[in-house]
Backbone:
């Protein structure tokens, strides 16, 4: 898995990788030549008393050492650049893939796991890439070259290398074999720690409100201990590798010196050759150590590569259609006459809006639509059929869990219907590209989410080219102008991540204002008035009347007061439409609607 992933990523950097290999080979060659030159200086210069040889060979050693330093620095720099590019590319691919996932697919992995895979897992692969470029490429050349030159210096003592290499190989194999499952489990434990920590940070008020701090501390402590135990086991294995290698290296060095001393005394070996042989043996063992260090890091990187591939190999269930559809463009809502115009999906009759002609076909049709989660015993929605005409408001009401939000999420294909057909402007939504489909829909989600930045930056997500004047206009329409004007920096006021420095009602109104900037023929309001008081709700619905007359509006709501002016009200129970009609019609014909209205004291007020 790791090799396939690395091979694909490195294919875009072939020339740079080739340059790294060449530089590492030059560095290795220079490093291997130095002990031979040093042996010649000792035997032919120092022992023989020839200063010219010492000067000549010393100059060569200095030049070769300089080449080694320059090539090592260049190879290290290029290796770091390629490794960082690999990380950037992986993070970009993961981000793009996550953006293409449906909410169901994101839930399979979990948000904390996806964050860990995009950060920690990618960093492990980056680290391995650096080690490969700085160590693993040079290690085989040093190993083979060192053996050849050691044999050249003295064949008899070369058997020490032959005896040492299998021992070090066995040590490396045993350590790596134990590290692989530890690293794989460790990345999963990091996911668990991230998930628990994220839950405790986001749910801090709930934890404190129920005095569960002690329980949560113990829960986090248990997860933290599991991760610590795993990391400790892998760290001890890696830490034990160095002493084992050094023991073998030191014993080998002692053996070479002892045996070499006897051979020098017997006149079978020269002093310079012994120093060179010791240097080559140390280089050979150092090459093995470098390889072992890389191989000890490889299991963790391989486990991370498997986790990354799980995300990248996922085929999103929701994919683009083949028809691009008309471009949804033009001036934002605030610039349109009569309040709000819209771009259309189909080839319906056109209308004039702000000096341009736009199609008006935005009829929304649900034809026997059902939706069920994979493996679920019962569908969330079953046999949903209705038509929302352009210029009308369709409201969806029902008990909690009746499928209202799911129904709305099917329209922009945040979820895909498992049966039936959904059409906008006479075209099935599956035939459209996702950009074209979603570009023609303005959504106010159930959860009022704002991004870290300023109020203006959050609003311009709906229309990046909107002017300050247009922002103030939609803020006034959304009943948010007054509180934004009261802020010291106005539109430039900071918004924390998620908008946590604002109240629920303020966040909700800003999300409505953001949607109003879209040049869209279809508007979806998913329980978008629940945090508003009744007076603000009423003023907002009155301000939205121009919008509701010019586009197709679908509203999910809990309050009867919010939907009573809708042209069509759908009553959902257990995923089915049990009644539909206007408010007055449903008060007479639908017992379910009567119960909802009565529970909110609307029935008494209206009769």
Residues:
């Amino acid at each position: 898995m790791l090799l396939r992933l690395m091979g694909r990523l490195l294919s875009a950097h072939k020339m740079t990788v080739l340059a790294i290999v060449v530089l590492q080979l030059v560095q290795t060659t220079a490093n291997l030549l130095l002990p031979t030159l040093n042996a010649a200086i000792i035997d032919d210069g120092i022992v023989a008393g020839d200063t010219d040889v010492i000067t000549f060979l010393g100059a060569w050693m200095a030049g070769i050492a300089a080449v080694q330093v320059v090539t090592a620095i260049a190879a290290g720099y290029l290796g770091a650049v390629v490794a960082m590019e690999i990380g950037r590319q992986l993070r970009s691919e993961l981000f793009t893939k996550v953006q293409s996932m449906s909410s169901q697919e994101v839930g399979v992995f979990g948000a904390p796991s996806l964050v860990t895979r995009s950060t920690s897992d990618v960093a492990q692969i980056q680290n391995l890439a650096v080690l490969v470029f700085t160590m693993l490429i040079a290690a085989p050349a040093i190993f083979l070259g060192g053996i050849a030159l050691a044999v050249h210096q003295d064949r008899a003592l070369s058997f020490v290398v032959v005896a040492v290499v299998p021992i070090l190989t066995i040590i490396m194999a045993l350590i790596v074999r134990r590290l692989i499952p530890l690293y794989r489990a460790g990345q999963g434990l990091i996911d668990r720690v991230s998930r628990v920590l994220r839950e405790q940070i986001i749910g801090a008020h709930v934890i404190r409100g129920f005095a569960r701090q002690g329980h949560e501390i113990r829960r986090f402590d248990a997860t933290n201990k599991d991760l610590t135990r795993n990391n400790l086991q892998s760290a001890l294995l890696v830490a034990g590798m160095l002493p084992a290698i050094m023991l073998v290296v030191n014993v080998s060095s002692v053996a070479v010196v002892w045996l070499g001393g006897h051979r020098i005394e017997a006149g079978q070996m020269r002093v310079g050759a012994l120093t060179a042989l010791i240097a080559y043996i140390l280089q050979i063992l150092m090459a093995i150590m470098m390889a072992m260090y890389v191989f000890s890091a490889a299991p963790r990187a391989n486990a991370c590569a498997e986790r990354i591939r799980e995300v990248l190999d996922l085929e999103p269930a929701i994919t683009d259609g083949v028809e691009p559809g008309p471009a949804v463009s033009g001036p934002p809502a605030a610039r349109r006459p009569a309040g709000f115009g819209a771009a259309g999906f189909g080839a319906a009759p056109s209308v004039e809006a702000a000096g341009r002609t736009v199609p008006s076909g935005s009829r929304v049709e649900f034809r026997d639509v059902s939706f069920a989660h994979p493996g679920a015993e019962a569908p969330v929605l079953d046999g949903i059929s209705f038509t929302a005409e352009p210029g009308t408001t369709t409201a969806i009401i029902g008990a909690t869990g009746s499928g209202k939000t799911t129904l709305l999420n099917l329209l922009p294909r945040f979820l895909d219907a498992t049966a039936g057909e959904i059409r906008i402007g006479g075209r099935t939504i599956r035939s459209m590209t996702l950009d074209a489909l979603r570009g023609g829909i303005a959504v106010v989600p159930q959860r009022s989410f704002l991004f870290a930045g300023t109020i203006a930056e959050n609003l311009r997500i709906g229309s990046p080219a909107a002017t300050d004047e247009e922002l103030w206009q939609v803020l006034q329409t959304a009943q948010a102008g007054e509180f934004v004007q009261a802020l010291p920096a106005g539109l430039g006021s900071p918004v924390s991540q998620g908008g946590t420095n604002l109240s629920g009602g303020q966040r909700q109104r800003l999300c409505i204002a953001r949607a109003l900037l879209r040049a869209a023929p279809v508007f979806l309001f998913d329980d978008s008035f629940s945090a508003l008081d009744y007076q603000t709700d009423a003023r907002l619905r009155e301000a939205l009347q121009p919008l509701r007359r010019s586009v197709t509006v679908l509203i999910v709501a809990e309050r009867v007061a919010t939907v009573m002016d809708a042209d069509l009200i759908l009553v959902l129970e257990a995923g089915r439409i049990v009644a539909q009609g206007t408010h007055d019609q449903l008060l007479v014909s639908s017992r379910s609607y009567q119960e909802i209205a009565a529970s909110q004291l609307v029935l008494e007020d209206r009769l």
Summary: The domain at 2-312 is CATH 1.20.1560.10 (ABC transporter transmembrane region fold). DSSP finds 22 helices and 14 strands in the chain.
